[in-house]
Each structure stands twice: as structure tokens, then as C-alpha cells.
Amino acid sequence: VCGPVLRLLEAQLQEQKKNHEEEVEALRNKVDLMQEELEKQQQAFLQTLQLSPEAQVEFGLQQEITRLTNENLDLKELLEKLEKNEKKLKKQLKIYRKKVQDFEAFQAMAPEEWRSHEGNIQMAVQRKEKDFQGMLEYYKEDEPRLIRNLIT
After folding, report:
1. Which of 32, 50, 68 finishes a domain?
2. Which site among 16, 35, 148, 151 is 20 to 30 Å from 71 CA-CA?
3. How far apart are CA 110 and CA 118, in angstroms?
4. Three-state SS for 136?
5. pTM, whole model, 2 decimals?
6. Do 60 and 48 meet the contact criterion of CB atoms below 8 Å apart?
């Protein structure tokens, strides 16, 4: 009993270790990327300090324009995604409205149709019962003779 439990626990521990190592690697990569970005920003900052005040303003404006352009592109992409989702939802709404209208129309017509169908069903059952009742018709006093004839 202990052997399978130990193997199960060991397998779980190995899985956790693997997940932890993958997570640590992902975090290291993220830190490396952030360090590279920080170095680029530091270099850009040092370059701007060496520029004249007018050039620093111009560089700052270019940076802000770039940032706003990227932000606008992200917002435009989000807008397109939302518009696509809106169209999808409008189509679904149209389909559901049609289903509701069909259902309401069916409910309005249903009581009359159900009554006629119920009558047809009852008539069919009555016909079947009549068919079965009429298969063998006899008088009560003829029953012993009928049984004797059926046996022979």
C-alpha cells in the first residue's frame, strides 16, 4: 500500500518541480526583457540630456507621439474586436427574437390545434377500440359452445 502511495506522491512532487522550474524560467526571461528595456530607456535618457533644450523638447514630443500612436492602434484593435462582437450579438439577438415570435405565434395557435389533435387522437383510439371490440362478437349464452369450438 505504501509503495503506490509513495510513487504517486513522488510523481506529484516531480510535476510540481517541473512546473516551478518552468515558472522560474519564464520569470527570468521576463526580467531579462525588462532589463533590456530599462537599458534602452537609460540610453535614450542620456542621449536626451546631451541634447540642447529645444532638441530635448522635440525628442520628448516624438516619444509621446510614438506612445500615443501605439495606444491609438491598441484602442483601434479593441474597437474592431468590440464591433465584431456587437455584430455577432446582434445576429444572435435577431435569431432569438425570431424564435420568440415563432413561439408566441405557436402558442396563440396551439390551443385550437391541440383541441383538434386531441379530438383526432381520441377518435383514432376509439376506432381502434371499436375495431378490436368488433373482432369477436357473441352472445353471453353462446360462450360455452364458442369455447368448445375453439378448443376443438
Report:
1. 50
2. 35
3. 11
4. coil
5. 0.40
6. yes
